[in-house]
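$ ./design --mode recover --in tokens.txt
reading tokens...
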């Protein structure tokens, strides 16, 4: 309790200093907001992951069927002329029949979009899932999110969804979805061993 009290005192003094600076005209609110926003994007000191950029409440459709979903999704998506579907022959339920967490029809999940800010390995990404208390939903999770809530996807970023190695058919098994600035979409299966970078954002489903 003493520590909390000391932190509160430090915070109150800091806020008072900011208030005095604004009132004196030495700095303005635009300057403070710009510094604050830049710090938010950097995440915790020493972390290779930034603060979440979005938190979404997402209810799984009641008619969701894990064993059929990817084929149905592929047929609808491939028919869209604004979509580039890479590795489509591998994007099927057979390749993703083992998933750490099977999505529950009718259940609402909290989905967090966590940006990568420094180059990381797949192992480090999986550790971040644990830190976020997220379940691993593989290809089914990220595709059903895109079908139902496409506007929540970030433009110009690869949103990716991991699973543990034992559930992957091969190394080319990390699904990624890229929302093009022109309104189109790219769907990929990405090599697990690649270096993940600031172009990537991990999708975390939390119960």
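writing sequence...
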């Amino acid at each position: 309790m003493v520590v909390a009290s000391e932190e509160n005192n430090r915070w109150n003094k800091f806020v008072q200093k900011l208030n005095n600076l604004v009132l004196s005209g030495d700095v303005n609110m635009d300057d403070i907001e710009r510094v604050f926003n830049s710090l938010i994007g950097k995440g915790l000191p020493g972390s290779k992951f930034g603060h979440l950029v979005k938190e979404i409440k997402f209810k799984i459709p009641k008619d969701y069927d894990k064993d059929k979903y990817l084929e149905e999704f592929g047929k609808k998506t491939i028919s869209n002329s604004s979509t580039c579907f890479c590795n489509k022959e591998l994007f099927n339920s057979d390749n993703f029949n083992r998933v750490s967490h099977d999505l529950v029809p009718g259940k609402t999940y909290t989905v967090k979009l966590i940006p990568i800010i420094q180059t990381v390995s797949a192992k480090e990404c999986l550790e971040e899932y644990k830190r976020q208390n997220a379940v691993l939903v593989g290809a089914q999770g990220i595709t059903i999110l895109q079908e139902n809530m496409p506007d929540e996807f970030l433009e110009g970023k690869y949103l990716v969804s991991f699973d543990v190695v034992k559930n992957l058919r091969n190394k080319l098994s990390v699904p990624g979805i890229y929302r093009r600035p022109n309104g189109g979409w790219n769907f990929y299966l990405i090599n697990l061993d690649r270096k993940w970078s600031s172009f990537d954002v991990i999708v975390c489903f939390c119960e």
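exit 0
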